[in-house]
Amino acid sequence: MRPPGARAVGGARAWAMVRLILPTGAHAMRTLAPLLGCLWGAGCGAPVEKGRGGDSGPGAAGPGDGAVDSAPAADGADGADGAADAGGDDGAGADGMSVDSGGDSGLADPFLTGRCPVGMIGVPTAAPGYCIDRYEVALDGGLALSAAGTLPSSAISFLAARDSCAATPALDETGAVVGLKRIATAAEWEDAADGVVGPGGARFSYGESWEDRRCAAPDLDGTVWLTELQPTASLPGCVSAFGFYDAIGNQWEWMDSEAVTDTAAALARFAELGLGLWVEDDGGISVLEGDPARLRVFVITAPTAPTVVEGRLFLPSAPISPAEWNGYLLVDGDHPKSGWAPIVLRPGEGGYWVYSYPEGEGLPVPDKRGCAWYFGRPEDGGCDLDASVHLHTPTFEGSISFRCAADPLP
Question: Is the pTM of this model over 0.85?
Fold first, then answer.
């Protein structure tokens, strides 16, 4: 029977209990190593790894297990005009390949294809399944501009980035509009960045081994050698086999995870995995069956694992930056697309209660990758191309840029 004073979400199946069975090849959650004191007191996040070769690695990204600095200056101060060019002369691409990143060196560009809209590269190059911006995007009159030598946008939300791509026309070589762009998906971004379509590919865009100062990111020992955001393609060796610049470092990048929030679907999914939750009449989330420690509460700064107090999910530590809404509920180890419940945290005695957040229903769950000039080393996890960060709500504004994708030309 249903608990007194409770309402069903998603029908009876939302609280029907079955024993946990993880599907083969499900994406496991992975934890970043802790970052002591996120720079500038900004938002932090933990990654979810998409395993290479089709299978994910063991482990789970748990609240408080690790943090990635998301925004040294949420108002965009880190993207000030006049940023110093940390790179060398244009034309020295990865692995000694001669690359014309700015289109002005007179060298032949091996990455251009007549199958893509102007300014975009094909993945794969010869017979593209899709086209994607070569450089991190800067906004120009609400449109998404991708060009060498420009400062990427900053302090833009995922929703604004998505809308900018959707408003940007894709042009052919004659200047004719052949369609509209869209924000790149995580799969598109990762394939363009690691140089392989589908499973596999490089750990970093230029290869398997980390190279200090190859990209606009801290050294292996953690030294932050840059002082600000860099123009695109400032470090010409920071390029993938497909000609995709600055995937590592400079600025984080938004991408579409292809997941949306849906409390009813999430609770049904949790029940399938043996964890029964209930949304009370006042919005508080209670645990009916299963171990609440298996839940993961994803917020800008991940608190400790939830416990149950008087039947309610309770967080004994608080996020450092309360927001309009805080984040998501997900089951430990489950696939990121399988069910997300939007939540808000409300102060209570000794910590925060977890409540459902109806205003967040149906909104996208953004992905963020690539680390930044001020944070990211291999052991921190943030610079690995398959290390996803799913902690931010789509309205969050940080030092995060993005890229658009488009269909190949007919």
Answer: no
